[in-house]
Structure formats: structure tokens, C-alpha cells
Prior knowledge:
The protein has 333 residues and is α/β, with parallel strands linked by helices. Helix content is 25%, strand content 23%.
Amino acid sequence: MRKVLFLVVLASLCLPFSVCAQTPSRPDLLGHAPIAISQDGPFVRIYSPEVREPVRLFVISDTHLFLSDEREEPFRDYSKRMAAAYNHTRNIYSREETDPEASFRKTLALAKERGADAICLLGDIVSYPSEAGIELAVRLLNETGIPWFYTTGNHDWHYEGMEGTEIELREKWTQERLAPLYKGYDHLLYSVEVKGVKLIFLDDGVYEILPEQLAAFKQEARGKQPKLLFCHIPFYAPGFGVTYGCGNPDWNEAHDRGFRAERRPKWPAEGHSAVTYDFWKAVGKACRQHRVLATFSGHIHKQSFSLVDGWPQFVTNANAEGGYYEVTLEPMP
């Protein structure tokens, strides 16, 4: 029997909503649904019959730590704009004045208080590859005693105006500065297992997907084991702008508004590679088959949710302003 997807969105994404896929002939038996999702502000619950025990994850993106010291002096021309970009912020919930470091510390303390099984960091944790900023992040994360996993954004490795292609510069600064955050994992794509749930981390910080990433994802997405996909830049979803860039048909030179401020090459005139579109299709297929339960991203600095043909995508508020997701995976009730 054909599955029917019910989506209820109440007033706005700041209010509770739920998503449930189930068989219409048994609408009262949630246990027959392949997946059910609910959200209330930063709290996300995902139910699946493949989940064997509760798993609690804290998802953090876009902290934009700007701390630096004398080691940064040779790079000041490349980091000066981002060093001043998020010095003072307001908490997204209380509207109280804060700053990135205070927000990061508060979120980590909350993860510890709530008994998180893992912390998932989705990029732009630092605003540029500052050694002092990276060291601070690693120290604070280690002090929680909670397992933590990281993938990069479009700023962590980016020194604005530095000569070289984005792929070359990402590789250089990932190896030379961001390695302590990766802890030996392959930055392009890697997976870990937390209480029977596979967490897949993808580096899409240049908006494009490489062939080896597509091949690795297809391998990781096999099987019935419940999985989540984490990355920095959201995937294309109708109704959102070009900054939902991975797979967006409007991602091209004509729609690039940020290249001057970020002092980087323009996006390609021809847009995405065929590999990036193939990756988008592969993720969608994995979500429709419930091999990947949902994807999580940051980058936009604004919480949002999209559902594209059975593919749930969550984007979190910026942690620089106190944003985060607390994601709980539970067995189907």
C-alpha cells in the first residue's frame, strides 16, 4: 500500500510541528510508521523502529569564535573582517547581550547538564583558522567529557583574499590548523556510531561535492542501521534562497552576492558539477528509504525546516547567538 506523508506545521517553525509517515489503513498504530519527527523550538525528536535505545545529540553550528594571539599577526590582513564580525551578539531566545565564546560555553554546559551522548559541530565554529580559537574550542569541548565530532564550514579554513583555489586552501588549512578538531577523521566524509546510530559528517564548505565524497556516502548509507547526515551548508529545497546551495540550480556566478566581501573567486558560471547534483539525489533517495532519517546543517544563521519528497532537513540558529538543536532519537512508541 502506498505510503502517505502527513505534515503539520503550526503557525511558524518557532512553534511545535510534527511529521509522520504511516499507512492510512492503520492510522492509530504509530508503530507501523517508518519514521516520525516532532520539533518544538530547538528540541527535535526522531522516532524509528530501527532505533533501539534513546540517543541524545547536541547540534552546534556557526559559533564564530574570533579569539587570536600573536601567532595571527602574519595573517591579520586575511582575517580582519571576520575578526570583527561577531564580537557582540544577542541571545536568540532571551535577547540578552552575549558573545560567541559565552554562547559556546553556555551550550556546552547545557549539553552536559542534559546528558548528551555526543556533540555534533557543523562548521564555522571559528571565523577563520585562528590557532588560539581552535585551541579554545578543543579545550572547552574536551572539558565536557562528552564525545564530540566536527565538520568544517565555509569560514573555519578561509583566510579572505589569500591566493589559491577554495579546494586548495581548504585542504591546506584543514591539515595545518583544523586537524585537532577532526581528531584523525577524514574531513571529506567520515562516520561514527553512537549507541547504534550512525552519524555521517560531510565537508561541503565549498558548496560542491567531490566524486570521492559521493562514493563514500553511498557506501556509508547502505543498510537498515539508522543514520543522520551532518554538514554545514544546507541542501537545495524549493522555497529557500541560493544559500541553500548544495544542489541549488541557481547556484552560479550570476547569483553570487558575497564574493567581494569574502574576497574569494566567484562561483562557477556553469553552476554545480554533475557530482553535486548526483549527491543531492543520493541523499534524497536514502531519506525516502529511511536509511538516513534526517539531515542537519547550519550556515544560514536561522532555524528552518524543509521536507522534500520524504527528506527532512533541519537548519539550526547560529550558536554565536545561543542557537543549537537538542536531537533525541527514540524507538518508535
